[in-house]
Amino acid sequence: MPTISVDTFFACSLMVLLVLSAMANTSRILSPYVNNEVDANAAERYEKISSYMLLSQGTPSDWGKDSSAIPETFGLARYASETPYELDIDKVTRLNSENLYAVNYARLFTSLKMPDVSFRLEIEPVFETRASLTATFEGTNETTYEFEILTQKHGNPVKADLKCYVVAEDYFGTTLVNDSSSSALVNMTLPNSVGGPALLVVFAKAVNDVGIVSFGVQSFAHNSAESQPRGTYLRLSPLNYTLNVSQRYSETSLSTAYALSFAYDSTMSQTLINTQSSAFAIPHFLDTSPIVTVVTGSNSSLFFEEWSAYPQVPFQTGADFANSPTLSNIFSFTYLVTINSALYECTVWLGGPRE
Which residue blocks in the chain are alpha helix, DSSP H? Predict the structure, then answer.
């Protein structure tokens, strides 16, 4: 079979897998109710509501960019967009509770203006990218770390090209892996003179579809320096192409801030500095890819790295349907949406009060 036919086959297979996954998710929720006219009507209503949430811009139409703005009516569509299911990068980011400017569920619920409908939203990359450290080779002057990179969708392999970055104290390295595999071994080498811990950032671009990109981040020890849990030293809040940095401790000092995507990387320029907060300009990369921001610094004598994604996914927000005995007729709808030209998977759960 010609190479172009093989590539087309894998690209089409991935899209079929995505569509079937979405259909299976909806069918699994709807199947108990297909013979019940009342529940069928509820399902139709909820499907229209879920579409409305993703197709409407809400009011004000650019509420995502203003950190102090609260939506009067709910909608996630990009400001001034004419493309269906194109979501606004900042509206999506403000749904993540890790963000300093997040809009809580109580306000989102009010802005939907449907007091009998509770909802939950999840947005994540179309497929998963996972990195695990499998071997370490220590030399006199440098240490090589071997990682296994897996790209999968619900356990099914997804063939992808990889771009890997490693960040450590006063060190930045990168490598490109174009073997179009769903499983790859990648070696990253660090000088022993470099302080740790270190951070591996992996971007995976699906074969033959530039719009399907996933990422994974893995911290690892270097020179016996263990990393701390994410968020120990800094709270990172991207918004309107600015990375807002809040320091947890007064003795923390910042070093370098990076913006990374599949095709580009850049050191971010600092635009604001205060006693406990700073801001960096996130570049507008000409790349169909999420952006991972990494900020390095030290707390007393301890080096650290903190990271966040822009848009700030994956996340879940909304009602806790699993532990809510007052809700019934819970339905789920899955959509493929675009954010900054990249494809993501969005699942909307909706439910009403128990009758």
Answer: 3-30, 37-55, 89-93, 105-112
Of 302, 353, 311, which is closest to residue 330 (Cα–Cα)? 353
Cα–chain-centroid distance for residue 253? 27
Distance of alpha carbon 196 from alpha carbon 230, whole angstroms: 15
- Token pair recorded at residue 261: 């995507």
State how far the alpha carbon of 31 is from the alpha carbons of 35, 58, 223, in Å: 9, 32, 55
Q: Report the first-to-last Cα separation within the chain, whole angstroms.
A: 58
> What distance in Å separates the CA atoms of residue 2 and residue 7, rounded to the nearest whole number?
9
Mean pLDDT on 227-256: 95
Please name which of 172, 131, 164 lies closest in space to residue 268, comparing C-alpha atoms: 172
Cα–Cα separations (whole angstroms), residue 265 to 76, 137, 283:
28, 27, 9
Residue that has been written with the tokens 């004419």 in this structure: 82
In a domain, 61, yes or no: yes
Residue 324: give the domain boundaries.
3-125+313-353
In a domain, 68, yes or no: yes
Are the CB atoms for 270 and 280 separated by under 8 Å?
yes
CA angle 315, 320, 322 (to 5 degrees): 115
Q: Quick one: which of 299, 303, 293 has its CA closest to 253?
A: 299
Task: Tell me: pLDDT of 1 over 70.
Answer: no
Distance in angstroms (rounded) separating the CA atoms of residues 112 and 110: 5
AA identity, residue 217: V
Predicted model pTM: 0.88
Q: Which residues, in sequence order, are CB contacts of 222 under 8 Å at separation 6+?
A: 143, 145, 168, 190, 194, 195, 196, 197, 198
Residue 221 reports pLDDT greater than 60: yes
Residue 208 belongs to some domain of the structure: no
Going by pLDDT thresholds of 50, 70 and 90, the confidence category of residue 210 is confident
Q: Which residue from 352, 133, 202, 172 is spatially nearest to 266, judged by alpha carbons?
A: 172
